[in-house]
Amino acid sequence: MNVSNIQAQHFMQCWGAQANYKPVEVSHTMGCYIYTTDGRKIFDLRSAHECINLGFNHPTVIEAMKRQMDSVIYVTDDFATAPTAMLAQKLAQLAPGNPNKKVWFGQSGAAAIEAAIKAARMYQYIRTFKEGKIADAPNQYPYPYKIIARYKSWHGSTSGAASAGGDPRRWFQEPFTVPGVVFAPEANAYRAPENDPLWSADYLEYIIEQEGGSNKVAAVLLEPVVGSNGIIPPPPGYMQRVREICDRWGLLLIADETMSGMGRTGKFFAIEHFDVVPDIIVMGKALGVYCPLSACIMSEEVSRVFDDNIFGHGQSFSGHALGCAAALESIRVLQEDGVMENCVAMGQYLGNALKQLGSQYTQVGDVRGMGLFWTMELVHDRESKTPLRKTTEKYTPTVVSDIARYLLEEENIYVPADKFGIWVVPPLIVTQEEVDMLIGAIGRALAKFVK
Predict the structure, then answer these.
(1) pLDDT confidence band for 67 (50 / 70 / 90)
(2) CATH fold of 66-335, please?
(3) Sheet strand arrangement including 217-222
(4) Nearest to residue 222, comparing CAs of 123, 170, 151?
(5) Distance of CA 305 to the CA centre of its chain
(6) Which residues pair with 103 in a beta bridge?
(7) Is the pTM of this model over 0.85?
(8) Side-chain-facing half-sphere of 221: CA atoms under 13 Å
(9) Where in the chain is the domain with CATH 3.90.1150.10?
(10) What pLDDT digit, counting tens, does each position of 171-190 carry?
């Protein structure tokens, strides 16, 4: 039986032309590696869509899942299970700010983003029409509903989430995007005007005022460290400035930690690096480890408005006990088994090695990241900073896709081919020996394809 041919014939691959779909058949996975049926051992340098921070088949997580399968796998949220209750409590405690929060669970980051957007809009609706909030402009219909998102961002592929994504994948949905989203510029120190790294925060406030201020705008939605669109940490002071702006205008701050959470940047949440407390935090991907699981963590101030008002969002498998059990054990491993410490140490080692390697090539414009979350941005030359893959070329073959293909075929290292640079996002259990191997392979790829 040729599994690859069967899958290619009947399975729809995400974000790709199906005629080009040629999946590699896998026999098993372990740690950082994918083992294929034809005998290859492939290092997964994208951590399976950034979902397996602990690597494949972590033994204690698998054991926790097996134990849970022997008791309760799933019940509706009319019933309580220990892993669902304990995970909600754990996330409420781990998230910055008052621990008296509430958590909604979904199966994808996009579903949790939808929950966050609905919660923000409903929160502002209740404040406007039920609590008599005084707006800074004439209280015209409707209520504060606009979401300020950013270019160079991605929040998922459902209608609301995709509409709030400043990524080319949003274009597939246009012109039928959900109304009420306005885009601000990303905070990219590499491409900021000279001597003004916080210009994008000032422009964000200008946009808020021009879009109606607190009378029309409900929330600011951002990734604390941008993921798919270039792994962009904000410049110093940016996140604090955004928090101040939100407070000044009475807006909610939604932090999308779908990719940057669960220890990826060296702290449990990336937002912790900036000493900022969001009103809502969204999690996904690595949260459930090997089970689809996401979370929308709402502050006490936000969640309490739903004590007497309906929270109008849901999914059939919300609070899935098996996924919650896996997440609880994953958090324990992160906190108690030295994984976070390894992320910090290997992140520093990897970052230094990437910067040293990048300095040897004039077409490596920027090397940036945090923890084990890194990218090498490729440009035509360092003076112009013109990218070798522009925003409009996400699905166009460029040197980035050439490098990805070379690494997979010649070096047995898997990286995504549709990013805007070289994606360097290993599992958090990566060793120094493996980092050295990765650096050597990336160096050979650069020598082959760039100057």
Answers:
(1) very high
(2) Aspartate Aminotransferase; domain 2 (3.40.640)
(3) 102-106, 294-298, 280-283, 252-256, 217-222, 146-150, 181-184
(4) 151
(5) 27
(6) 297
(7) yes
(8) 39
(9) 3-57+339-449
(10) 999 999 999 999 999 999 99
